Amino acid sequence: MSIASAVNPWFLANRRDLPWRAPQFGAWGILVSEIMLQQTPVARVVPRLEQWLARWPTPADLAAAPPGDAVRAWDRLGYPRRALRLHAAAVAITEQHGGVVPSDLDALLALPGIGDYTARAIAAFAFGARHPVVDTNVRRVIARAIDGQAEAGPPSTRRDLAAMEELLPHSLPDAQLFNAAMMELGAIVCTARSPRCFTEPTDCPIADSCRWRAAGYPAYEGPRAAVQATFAGSDRQVRGLIMAELRGSDIPVTAAELATTWPDQTQLGRAIAGLLADGLAVEVTGGYELP
């Protein structure tokens, strides 16, 4: 089933105006945006991305800064280990590739903190390479339109890439466009909770050929991915409180000061130990600070 001929024109007419889609945005900007967009909404990423690239317009600029500066600039994007990974990738690009983001998929995969999805996205969107790029939105569109299921089920890199590869046009420009178009379709039309074909089927370019819609929108009965623990009261929340204290101080934060951030001192100690192990904080004379 080929859907690119319908999805690509729809994308050209309806795509959002996002910074990383601008002509000549650059591979470094795309790399930064892809890491920021992991588990963070677009609306929160755009202003932080612009500030980041204004401060560190090249990998060498970021590599020359202390890792703690990257963590502080990450602010509240969440999952601050991404800031350390981005800094490590900038160092590797500077030292191993002359400060130029590599275009080869294997070279991208060899960079610290660059996984399979991110490497393929950079290769496809920055360099026009023909690689299937699969995120949550793409998986959902394929599950519904091609497989007739409401949900994609637990991810499988091998299976998901193969499914997208079957749909990917052979033309390099069309393939690049299709990767972006499928993500956009899942993000703004074929959404997880309220797909617009329920009320406005003309908004979806493949509504007439969607197998899930043709089957009457059957409920999903397959396996599901494990549900993450709620944020409130979690170790992740405590880590976030500690990181906020460290980002907001130019001098070491004492153990006594951190003790006031959370009542459960056992959980607080576990969170501090985790941040130290992850390299997001360091213990110094007088307390703790960013690396």
What are the key terms here?
291 residues; mainly alpha; Arc Repressor Mutant, subunit A; 2 domains; two-stranded antiparallel sheet; globular
* Distance between the amino and carboxyl termini: 51 Å
Strand/helix succession:
HHHHHHHHHHHHHHHEE
Give the mean pLDDT.
91
Unreliable segments of 5+ consecutive residues: none
Q: Which secondary-structure class do the elements indicate?
A: mainly alpha
Number of beta strands: 2
Strand content: under 5%
So, the CATH homologous superfamily of the largest domain?
Hypothetical protein, domain 2
Q: What's the CATH class label of the largest domain?
A: Mainly Alpha
The total tally of domains equals 2
Helix count, DSSP H or I runs of 4 or more residues? 15
At CATH's second level, what is the architecture of the largest domain? Orthogonal Bundle
Measured on Cα atoms, how large is the radius of gyration? 21 Å
**What is the topology, as strand order, of the major beta sheet?**
1-2
Major beta-sheet overview: 2 strands, antiparallel
Envelope shape: globular
Roughly what percent helix?
Answer: 40-55%
CATH topology of the largest domain: Endonuclease III, domain 1
